[in-house]
């Protein structure tokens, strides 16, 4: 999935998880399976895909082979929507719209939201936790200044209900409406968001984000002095003693520009300082709680100092922009995107005299760190062994404990090698230019998710080449089958894999090798 920013490499999965979780156990021996053409064990070094990227090419409007069968009407949260040829929401994703993990008391996503909310107190910040996941293309993209050819708009990245309506890909989709309503100086939104994406332990087609924003009004602050008003508010925020690395200048004319004609340098700098301190206080709270939980469970726990840094970023709806990264088990992990709100957004929302900041953070990503949860599929588990570990925490955050993994079941790897339809080229994975009959890696991921539910831990491209004579492209993906709830027999794995192969032939038009 395209991140909601510009064409930059994403820093993902590998840095996210406890080291132990990144080691897969060697797979059981695998009998020969006729259909797959290729078999292999699953050496641990190959079973983890640490990075993902998306093509920075134009969005494609082609209708992929992977489109679920069109249905005239669908229902989401009690409302009916008419579908059209853009419809591409598979049943399992549609069903997730009713789960709302961020509203389930004692769920780790709920607890993470609670901790973040505690650092952005009412009434300055008003909380919005029940916005509908179905939004317009305008809300999700246009209102935020996404260019028409931004890859995030494509059907290979985004779940469309119809040409004008989609499942929100980020909580920023609600920024404009809240700026327009102007009910409070600040707001927090938590919500489920949807992205067509790869399959691995840190990606799921549904995850949760929290959006925050804070504005000041030139017409309401004393003497119209925004800078003085912001510094006064900054002085009221607590301080912290975590060392934060922040080498970049407040703005940079080329890389991270000030909004000329809208903000003075002093204003942008004041907004940035308030934004950064507010978010640092939040992350300090999260990690202080995570360490306290670890120390309660493990008397030998060694407390390492928290390291946080700010790096320049790009989003169509903020400038200058930054990401916060946290040093975690040997790697820098991106936890949030943020910046000074684009003035066009505030002008279009009818509040031109306001100036402010906004941020967006991934709740699962934080919850995985907070509770040491090794696999994102677990958040969706209704298994008592998962849910029971968090009971009572919402009412008393000091009871928080790290997740104790229940037994891990063996993995079974199967490869699927295939020729692409001769008219296709590939986008993502292969990284070549998209054609009108686009093959996209996300289509493979989605077929696998639809057929196997949550029994696949990850899928990765292990080989691709173009035949020198025919020019046809071959790809090979390794599917790592591992149930969260039981040991899969070879027979069960083979049956699932055969169904995956059949669906790929039927839906993607590939030819199995
Ligand atoms: C956004 O979604 C922007 N809307 C954030 C923003 C809001 C910027 C307001 C400026 C102002 P991005 O795609 O990078 O940006 O996602 C933001 C955060 O969501 C990431 O830092 C990460 O914590 C989380 N996130 C993104 N993709 C995933 C994923 N596939 N799985 C888990 N968490 C994710
Ligand atoms: Mg990002």
UniProtKB/TrEMBL annotation:
<dbReference type="InterPro" id="IPR045864">
    <property type="entry name" value="aa-tRNA-synth_II/BPL/LPL"/>
</dbReference>
<dbReference type="GO" id="GO:0005759">
    <property type="term" value="C:mitochondrial matrix"/>
</dbReference>
<dbReference type="InterPro" id="IPR036690">
    <property type="entry name" value="Fdx_antiC-bd_sf"/>
</dbReference>
<keyword id="KW-0436">Ligase</keyword>
<comment type="function">
    <text>Is responsible for the charging of tRNA(Phe) with phenylalanine in mitochondrial translation.</text>
</comment>
<dbReference type="InterPro" id="IPR006195">
    <property type="entry name" value="aa-tRNA-synth_II"/>
</dbReference>
<keyword id="KW-0648">Protein biosynthesis</keyword>
<dbReference type="InterPro" id="IPR002319">
    <property type="entry name" value="Phenylalanyl-tRNA_Synthase"/>
</dbReference>
<keyword id="KW-0496">Mitochondrion</keyword>
<comment type="similarity">
    <text>Belongs to the class-II aminoacyl-tRNA synthetase family.</text>
</comment>
<keyword id="KW-0809">Transit peptide</keyword>
<keyword id="KW-0547">Nucleotide-binding</keyword>
<keyword id="KW-0030">Aminoacyl-tRNA synthetase</keyword>
<dbReference type="InterPro" id="IPR005121">
    <property type="entry name" value="Fdx_antiC-bd"/>
</dbReference>
<protein>
    <recommendedName>
        <fullName>Phenylalanine--tRNA ligase, mitochondrial</fullName>
        <ecNumber>6.1.1.20</ecNumber>
    </recommendedName>
</protein>
<feature type="domain" description="Aminoacyl-transfer RNA synthetases class-II family profile">
    <location>
        <begin position="176"/>
        <end position="405"/>
    </location>
</feature>
<dbReference type="GO" id="GO:0005524">
    <property type="term" value="F:ATP binding"/>
</dbReference>
<dbReference type="InterPro" id="IPR004530">
    <property type="entry name" value="Phe-tRNA-synth_IIc_mito"/>
</dbReference>
<dbReference type="GO" id="GO:0000049">
    <property type="term" value="F:tRNA binding"/>
</dbReference>
<dbReference type="GO" id="GO:0004826">
    <property type="term" value="F:phenylalanine-tRNA ligase activity"/>
</dbReference>
<feature type="domain" description="FDX-ACB">
    <location>
        <begin position="407"/>
        <end position="513"/>
    </location>
</feature>
<dbReference type="GO" id="GO:0006432">
    <property type="term" value="P:phenylalanyl-tRNA aminoacylation"/>
</dbReference>
<dbReference type="Pfam" id="PF01409">
    <property type="entry name" value="tRNA-synt_2d"/>
</dbReference>
<keyword id="KW-0067">ATP-binding</keyword>
<dbReference type="Pfam" id="PF03147">
    <property type="entry name" value="FDX-ACB"/>
</dbReference>
């Amino acid at each position: 999935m395209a991140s909601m920013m510009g064409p930059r490499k994403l820093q993902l999965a590998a840095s996210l998880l406890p080291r132990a979780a990144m080691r897969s156990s060697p797979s059981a021996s695998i009998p020969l399976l006729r259909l797959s053409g290729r078999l292999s064990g699953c050496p641990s070094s190959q079973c983890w895909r640490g990075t993902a990227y998306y093509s920075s090419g134009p969005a494609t409007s082609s209708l992929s082979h992977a489109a679920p069968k069109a249905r005239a009407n669908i229902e989401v949260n009690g409302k009916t929507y008419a579908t059209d040829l853009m419809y591409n929401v598979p049943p399992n994703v549609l069903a997730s719209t009713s789960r709302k993990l961020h509203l389930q008391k004692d769920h780790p996503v709920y607890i993470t939201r609670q901790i973040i909310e505690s650092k952005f107190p009412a009434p300055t910040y008003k909380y919005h936790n029940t916005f509908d996941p179905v939004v317009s293309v305008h809300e999700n993209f246009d209102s935020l200044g996404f260019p028409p050819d931004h890859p995030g708009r494509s059907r290979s990245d985004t779940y469309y209900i119809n040409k004008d309506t989609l499942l929100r890909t980020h909580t920023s989709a609600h920024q404009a409406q809240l700026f327009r309503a102007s009910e409070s100086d600040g707001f927090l939104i938590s919500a489920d968001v949807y992205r067509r994406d790869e399959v691995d332990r840190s990606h799921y087609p549904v995850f949760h984000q929290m959006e925050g924003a804070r504005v000041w009004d030139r017409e309401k602050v004393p003497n119209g002095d925004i800078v003085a008003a912001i510094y006064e508010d900054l002085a009221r925020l607590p301080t912290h003693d975590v060392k934060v690395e922040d080498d970049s200048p407040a703005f940079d004319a080329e890389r991270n520009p000030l909004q000329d004609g809208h903000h003075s340098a002093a204003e942008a700098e004041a907004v940035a300082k308030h934004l950064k301190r507010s978010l640092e206080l939040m992350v300090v709270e999260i990690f202080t709680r995570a360490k306290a939980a670890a120390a309660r469970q493990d008397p030998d726990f060694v407390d390492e100092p928290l390291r946080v840094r700010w790096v320049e970023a790009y989003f169509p709806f903020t400038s200058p922009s930054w990401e916060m990264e946290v040093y975690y088990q040997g790697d820098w992990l991106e936890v949030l995107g943020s910046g000074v709100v684009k003035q066009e957004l505030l002008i279009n929302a009818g509040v031109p005299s306001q100036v402010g900041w906004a941020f967006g953070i991934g709740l699962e990503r934080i919850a995985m760190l907070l509770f040491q949860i090794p696999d994102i599929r677990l958040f969706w588990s209704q298994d008592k062994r998962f849910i029971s570990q968090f009971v009572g925490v919402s009412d008393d955050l000091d009871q928080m404990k790290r997740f104790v993994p229940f037994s891990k079941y063996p993995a079974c790897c199967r490869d699927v090698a295939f020729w692409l339809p001769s008219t296709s080229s590939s986008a993502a994975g292969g990284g070549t230019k998209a054609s009108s009959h686009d093959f996209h890696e996300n289509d493979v991921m989605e077929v696998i998710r639809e057929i196997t539910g949550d029994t696949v831990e990850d899928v990765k491209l292990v080989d691709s080449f173009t035949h020198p004579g025919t020019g046809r492209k071959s790809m090979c993906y390794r599917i790592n089958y591992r149930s969260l709830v039981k040991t899969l027999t070879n027979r069960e794995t083979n049956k699932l894999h055969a169904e995956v192969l059949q669906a790929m032939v039927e839906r993607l038009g590939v030819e199995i090798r």
